[in-house]
Write a structure and sequence with these properties.
8 strands, 22% helix, elongated
């Protein structure tokens, strides 16, 4: 039984480099972390979110929640074009804090490769 276990070990090691190579490729293609996320309160329970544009990104995903850890009731807004670097969030609950984060994505072989999320920005709805 010991020779069989030794024969199985090389198979596992040959699969691992393929997986790490795929992971490296996606991290190399991933866009940079979005910077300079700003939130501004607008009249009527609305918030404008703006960020610094990344020229290499294909689009953005804005995520917002009433929970700081984004563990429940998270809503996403996808922005398909890179030319737009702001969005207005509407129909927000008055008296609560809204937490917002943004990430960019790049289309590689028809699939979206996401970059890291920005720092979380918070604002209270009045």
């Amino acid at each position: 039984q010991a020779p069989q276990a030794a024969a199985q070990a090389p198979q596992a090691t040959t699969q691992a480099p393929q997986q790490t190579a795929a992971a490296e490729q996606t991290t190399q293609n991933a866009p940079k972390k979005v910077k300079a996320v700003k939130t501004k309160r607008l009249p009527g329970s609305k918030v404008r979110v703006s960020w610094k544009r990344d020229k290499k990104a294909s689009g953005y995903q804005v995520s917002y929640s009433y929970k700081k850890k984004f563990n429940s009731k998270v809503k996403h807004i996808n922005i398909k074009k890179n030319k737009k670097n702001k969005v207005v969030l509407s129909k927000l609950t008055k008296g609560k804090k809204v937490f917002v984060k943004v990430r960019s994505y790049k289309k590689v072989d028809g699939k979206k490769v996401y970059g890291a999320y920005s720092k979380v920005s918070k604002i209270k709805i009045k």
